[in-house]
């Protein structure tokens, strides 16, 4: 399936793996890229040296295109931005801020820049500052979220900008992929389903929490302070919501969640850790390789679309 995104990024399938902190490291990124999608290293809050090492590890594992997701609130964002340029990374996706100050540096290095946006206003701003595409991420997604749903956000962003749009949030199979294409997207970004991929280093407890999740098992914390995060309900999220209701300060809430994502992803503490996952978790019921996931999604999507997107680019 050829789209503007497969042509732009030089990939076989218009499937991008989400840049999930602690989950999206070199094992997963290289496996997704090797399977024909676009694997991403999630910089999260990691130091620049770690990101550089991850880039080298992916290059040792595959010669296919891959990228890095940079959360702009990372304390070492400036240094990581320079590392990405020095290493000549093919693609950079960004979140939690405006990447405008890095745009000239990255463009000079030949990097394709794809910010994640949650509104048409942000999408237009990113287009003006030189973004090559945008990821329109709906509130159904796991982790940090906006307010608009994927169904409403994607077509409005597609109408608002002239650059390609990648749909994210609530997409886990060929039906979601086909729906995204019909809404005007040129590719999809998938996170939660790749969390349970065979190649993901995600702790078995984290994977099991997603695999056993029902449709109503996610909830959103952080609304009171303007930093909403979607996760699967557990003791930690219930305690967070209780403190929010009682008017706890941002400092108190941050103390509760400090290191909680790593605790869940790497150590397997899914009781007191943060199990970030999208609303789509209720549809995911088995662990598969990245290749199996992508092939299954594409076969189902192509059957539904009847080949009408095959010449889209």
Task: Explain how this protein is built.
The strands form two sheets. Strands 1-9-8-6-5-4-3-2 form an eight-stranded parallel beta sheet. With 313 residues, the protein is of the alpha/beta class. It has helices at residues 4-9, 26-34, 48-61, 77-87, 103-108, 120-128, 150-160, 174-182, 192-195, 204-211, 235-245, 250-257, 260-265, 290-305; strands at 15-17, 39-42, 66-71, 91-95, 112-117, 134-137, 143-144, 165-168, 187-190, 218-221, 229-232. It starts with a helix and ends in an 8-residue tail after the last helix. Helix 11 (235-245) runs antiparallel to helix 12 (250-257). The chain contains 14 helices and eleven strands.
């Amino acid at each position: 399936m050829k789209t503007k995104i497969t042509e732009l990024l030089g990939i076989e399938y218009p499937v991008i793996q989400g840049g999930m902190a602690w989950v999206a490291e070199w094992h997963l990124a290289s496996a997704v890229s090797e399977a024909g999608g676009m694997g991403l290293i999630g910089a999260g809050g990691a130091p620049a040296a770690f990101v550089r090492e991850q880039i080298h590890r992916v290059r040792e594992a595959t010669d296919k295109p891959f990228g890095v997701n940079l959360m702009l609130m990372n304390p070492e964002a400036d240094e990581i931005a320079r590392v990405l340029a020095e290493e000549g990374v093919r693609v950079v996706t960004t979140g939690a801020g405006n990447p405008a100050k890095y745009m000239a540096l990255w463009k000079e290095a030949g990097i394709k820049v794809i910010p994640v946006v949650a509104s048409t206003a942000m999408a237009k701003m990113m287009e003006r500052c030189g973004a090559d595409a945008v990821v329109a991420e709906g509130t159904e997604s796991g982790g940090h979220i906006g307010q608009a749903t994927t169904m409403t956000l994607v077509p409005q962003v597609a109408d608002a900008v002239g650059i390609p749009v990648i749909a994210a949030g609530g997409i886990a199979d060929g039906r979601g992929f086909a729906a995204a294409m019909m809404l005007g997207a040129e590719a999809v970004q998938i996170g939660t389903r790749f969390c349970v991929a065979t190649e993901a280093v995600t702790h078995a407890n984290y994977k099991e929490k997603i695999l056993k999740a029902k449709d109503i098992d996610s909830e959103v914390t952080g609304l009171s302070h303007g930093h909403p995060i979607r996760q699967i309900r557990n003791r930690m999220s219930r305690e967070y919501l209780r403190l929010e209701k009682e008017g706890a300060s941002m400092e108190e809430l941050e103390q509760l969640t400090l290191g909680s994502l790593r605790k869940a992803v790497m150590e397997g503490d899914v009781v007191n850790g943060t199990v970030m996952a999208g609303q789509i978790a209720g549809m995911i019921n088995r662990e598969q390789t990245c290749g199996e996931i992508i092939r299954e999604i594409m076969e189902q999507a192509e059957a539904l679309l009847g080949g009408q997107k095959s010449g889209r680019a």
